[in-house]
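Chapter review: from sequence to fold.
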Amino acid sequence: MALIGNGINNNIISVFGNNIPNRDGGTHVTAFKQAVTVAINGYGKRTPIGDYPAKGRATAGVASISRKALAVTGLIVTARSVQLEDQVTIISTNGQALRTKVANIRQSGRATMGTRLMQMAEGDTVASVARLAAADLPAEAGHEPDAARDSAANGK
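The token string follows.
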């Protein structure tokens, strides 16, 4: 699944998907059910992938943030396809960092402004957003990964 910003007008997102099988079963299209969009002024949202209509190449794309809200939100920094169990890290140009669960980001419609994810200081902007896949995160206290639990049960 690719969410690609239009270089001329960054509030337009083009969505492309494929049917390549992934390691978790299913395909790229079916595995990622949500998109997290983050704008330069710290606003963001979680939107179901199904809200983005499929488009072919050489199209104008689809608005992902309300055009009326661009003065407040700023242009889109990134749009990431995610799973609800994932986490994201947002880093500002002044070095402020925020790590949150995708499930904690408010779900909004496709062409809305979203909510403030990070309070930005004067002159600060979002510089980077990274997806932390749930499968790559260390197990929470009291929760063992499936492989570790299976090995312990088999006496390995």
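Two observations follow directly from the output. The helical segments are 28-31, 70-73, 146-153. The beta strands are 2-5, 12-16, 34-39, 43-48, 62-63, 76-82, 87-92, 97-101, 115-116, 126-132.
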